[in-house]
Description:
The protein is mostly helical.
Amino acid sequence: MTLHIPAHEFAVGRHAAAAHPWPWRTGLLLFVLFAMANWSWSFNQRWYSTSSGQVEEMIGGISEGQLVRQVAFLLMTAYAIGALLVSGERGVKLKWIIAYPVVLFVAWAFLSFTWSIEPAMAGKRLIIFGAMVGMTAVVLRQFDIRQMAEIALIASSLTMAASILNELRLAAASFPGLGIWRFGGVMHPNHSGLNACVLMLACLYLRRFNRGRWIVVLFVLATAVLLATKSRTALSATLVACTVYLLLSSRTSRVAVVLLLAAWAAAALLWVSSIGDSVDISRALTLGREDLKDADVRKLTGRTDIWKFALMQAAKNPNRALIGYGYETFWTPENVRGVSEFVKFKIPEGHNLYLDWYLELGAVGVGLFALMMLVALWRWSSAARLLRSPAAALAAAVLCGTAVHGFAESSLGDASLPTMFVYAALGGAAILRPDEEVGV
């Protein structure tokens, strides 16, 4: 059997470093665009409040959107179209057996506009989805995996720096208390945790090419930020992703790698537990968060109630089991208000990536998503094993982290920098360059 692999994308030699300088322009561009789209300088640590006024404010934001965010994605769309119209340096073709699930999923998402329960909302969200897909295509066309990791490091490190500065500003004005406080900076803590995850993976991979201490410092700082966000899902995804990357790329004993990461996880839990007066395993499981001190961890701190409400609402129209309610249109203001009342805190999503795809695109959509995840993961993990490729190991790690994170969060379905690199890992698995194929 012959497996065709784009060898250039897995290159790790010095020649690649000399031929491809750091892609600063693209890294800065993505940093600026996602800052415009997702940041809030006035973000404070009252995100956990459940007053009706704040729920209505959140609903208003869902209904109306933000002008700066809309401009950001229109600019992204314009840039992507322009870049795709310009001839690339290298010809690109697809391995269609891998590309089919990706193409079908994207097509199904756009087709869902025709049966959406809120066409206006679906249309706006699909413009953003199209911008993300287009920008991902530009990145895949122009850069190899090493350069994508450099782009990730540039954009995520600048985002982390801005978050730290803004968090210091907010803390100086009003600090809510260590048990309540979570590091957010310019985003929700869960999104800041994912940004730290992206930075940590980029540092791990790029350390192979640059032995400077600054990469180690960035990794340590990103680890501290990840812990400070108290995001259990981001922490779990990071642990899984780092473990997969080290197991697939390292020549060190796999047992030693697993033991090292297990020790790191235990240390993280003990650090969180030490926030209180004594070590408490339930406190560790909630990462020391006072807002969850009365939560039942067996119910995943309210997530099972969210899922119950969503499925009850979806069951009211069984005819939509296959096709869903339309791209990002299940969580209408009515359903957001209903689930917030049902679970007694404000929430605008299903807190489960697979559930949200089912609600939006039906069994067909979530099936296509699962298929493209499995096919891409098979390809990257095969390349990592057969070619001993750290680049392929990095892509496999991104997908494994995504798979774990998706069971309790929907964040990696949002339009953000981490999501774009998930798209790149999915789409990149299908790309072949005719002059770079190798038989294995």
